[in-house]
Amino acid sequence: MKTVIIREFMEHVKSIQFVVLLVFAVTLFSINGVYFSRKYNQLMTVFLSSSQEKSTVSTTLSRQPSPLLFMSEGGDTYRPGQYRLAPKYSLSAQTSDESNYMLPDIPEPDWTFIVSIIFSLYVILLGYNAISGEREQGTMRLILSNPIGRIKLVVSKYATILLTVTAILSAGVLISLIITGLSNPVVFTTGYLARIALMIVLSLAYLSIFAFLSLMLSSLIGNSSLVLMISLALWIFLGIIIPNTSGIIAEKISRVPSEFQTSNQLGPVIQKQLDIDIDTIRERAHKGEIRTEDEAKKEFDRICENCQDSYIKYYNNYDNSMKQRAATAQNLSRISPTALFQYAAENLTGTGIDSEERFMRDIQVYSALYDNYIRKKIGKLVSTSQWSFMTDINVDGKNILVQSPRPEEYQGDNSDFPMFRESRPDIVRSLRDALMDMAGILLWNIVLAMGAFTAFLRADVR
Which residues lie below 8 Å from residue 374, measured CB to CB, with a gap of 6+? Predict the structure, then answer.
């Protein structure tokens, strides 16, 4: 078995395919290192320059970028890095995206993209004729005439494919780490090195799926050209079609209205209710139930706060619906091993949807501390109204001007102001979050390995 592995590995190394991919991989990983070194430095510059304001009106909360963006960017480029938090968990994203939306989106050149697209395709090209090619050339019977069983032969073919792709992957990873480490030495600390090692193992486990897939098809089908065509079709279906259509399917299932539709539906409803409440105050003042200016202002503040609370509650429900739709899309896409690999990589690197959800939970926890501080210093909690307007109410023959309430700025000692701290999961927590997706990758390997061995054991090698 060792002889077969060495012989086939040397054949792969001497091939033009190996040389081309090696040059291509080194180039891609070099671009990866340069690109993400610059991106991380830019994001850190923004993060460090955005100090949190000690204000009871509103404060800015910033999200720290992950040093491991180069492994899996996870869509963080399109997510806001800052949020403006006002009392009563009134939250708004602060975006500064300068993307040209007239141009198509280009995938980020992170490790996840390079491995899931480039290297998985190379694995298929290595394995599609591993069995069928030997049968077409008539060398399979000659190989099996030697003291090597069919199981050992399949293991040898599989090991050769992984050994070949590991050699190229290692060269690319080394280049990327050198470039990234020169710009950001923190990636060479123990905690991050452990995550990098896990990412490499995860990448090989993902590529192993396509090795078993190509060997299974090569054993089932005698024509190498047909094996290649079917392998490529499955590669496109599993790696591109399923991950990119799951969101469309989830959107059709969930039927959540767009933010524009939500705004058009909600705004007039709350405005109508506010008008009714204002008319009620005027009527009560006319009847003498409201006799002083302070009573009129308190009643007006109360109805404005009720409307604002309804507005916040409605949008919180909308956000929860959107999160559920995103979760549905994720679960549907998990049929694909490429999606499983993507989500597991994001958990290891601290990026992606799960990371954003953790950040939002941190904000919710902090919001309670922030509101308690405001109650302590100001004596009341007033949220920022979505409507800025004023009107007059006649109280006891006198026109009183009332306006939408605004949070007050505390002018005293704010040395005890609660500062926001983002939680950073340790490697154990990251592994736990990625466990389900890793188990899915393992399951794919087991099923396809059984298929590859069973297909070759039953194959006619004549």
Answer: 56, 87, 381, 407, 410
The Cα 70–Cα 241 span in angstroms is 24
Specify the amino acid at residue 409: E
User: What are the Cα distances from residue 383, in Å, to 52, 87, 136?
Assistant: 19, 5, 75
C-alpha pair distances (Å), 24 with each of 18, 20, 107, 118, 404:
10, 6, 17, 9, 61
DSSP string, 379-402: SS--PPPS---EEEEEETTEEEEE
More confident residue, 138 or 441: 441
pTM: 0.85
Nearest-angstrom CA–CA distance, 157 and 135? 14
Give per-residue pLDDT as tens, 386-407.
Answer: 656 667 777 777 777 777 777 8
List of residues 6+ apart from 191 with CB closer than 8 A: 426, 427
Closest CA to 347 of 440, 434, 437: 434
Report d(CA 416, CA 353) in Å as an integer: 33
DSSP one-letter string for 62-122:
EPPPPTTTTT--TTGGGS-SEEEEETTTEEEEE------TTSPP-----HHHIIIIIIHHH
Q: How many CB atoms lie within 10 A of CB 215?
A: 28
CB atoms within 10 A of CB 403: 14
| SS3 state at 186 | helix
8 A C-beta contact, residue 37 and residue 184:
yes
Q: How far apart are CA 208 and CA 127, in angstroms?
A: 11
- The whole-angstrom separation of Cα 434 and Cα 186 is 23
Region of residue 380 (phi > 0: left; psi between -120 and 50: alpha; otherwise: beta)? beta
pLDDT digits (tens, 9 = 90+) for 222-251: 788 899 999 999 999 998 898 888 877 877
Residue 120 has pLDDT above 50, yes or no: yes
Distances (CA, A) of 97 to 79, 117, 431: 9, 27, 31
| Residue 39 structure tokens | 């991106």
Say which residue the tokens 């006002």 belong to: 86
The pLDDT value given to residue 231:
92
DSSP state of 351: -
Contact 46, 397 (CB under 8 A): no
CA–CA gap between residue 219 and residue 229 (Å, rounded): 15
Cα–Cα dist 319/18, whole Å: 48
Nearest-angstrom CA–CA distance, 433 and 346: 10
